[in-house]
Amino acid sequence: MGTTKKRNTYTPEYRREAAHLVLDTGRTITAVAAEIRVGEQLLGRWVQQERDRIGAPPEAPLDASERAELDRLRRENTELRLDNEFLGKAAAFFAAKNTPGRSASR
User: Fold this and answer.
1) pLDDT tens digit string along 8-48?
2) HEC assignment per residue over the chain
3) Which of 17, 30, 38, 43 is the most exposed, having the fewest neighbouring CB atoms within 10 Å of its CB?
4) Residues contacting residue 68 through CB under 8 Å, at least 6 positions apart
């Protein structure tokens, strides 16, 4: 006897919200699909349907200067996230070290 795989069903609201993760943030369909665990083609259809529904113009490809700026901003964003992560850990370390009742000579 063969096994059948149950297809997931998604509400129209979920589909719109998923599409807006792409439309509103500028993230790729691939990245969002992996994050929310749906197929890229399925999410791509939802994005196109939402663009059609809201009357959004199709995405124009980026020119070379826009692509370069986007790449630069993505690198900068990554660096800032790493800096923020480090600063959070440093702040937690110093906060723990300066907690009253703990020995400062550790």
Assistant:
1) 899 999 999 999 999 888 889 999 999 999 999 999 999 99
2) CCCCCCCCCCCHHHHHHHHHHHHCCCCCHHHHHHHHCCCHHHHHHHHHHHHHHHCCCCCCCCCHHHHHHHHHHHHHHHHHHHHHHHHHHHHHHHHHHCCCCCCCCC
3) 30
4) none
d(Cα 26, Cα 54) in Å, to the nearest integer? Answer: 16
Residue 37, CA distances (Å) to 1, 52, 106 in order:
28, 23, 46
d(CA 84, CA 99): 22
Cα separation values, 25 from 12, 21, 87, 91, 94, Å: 20, 6, 26, 30, 35
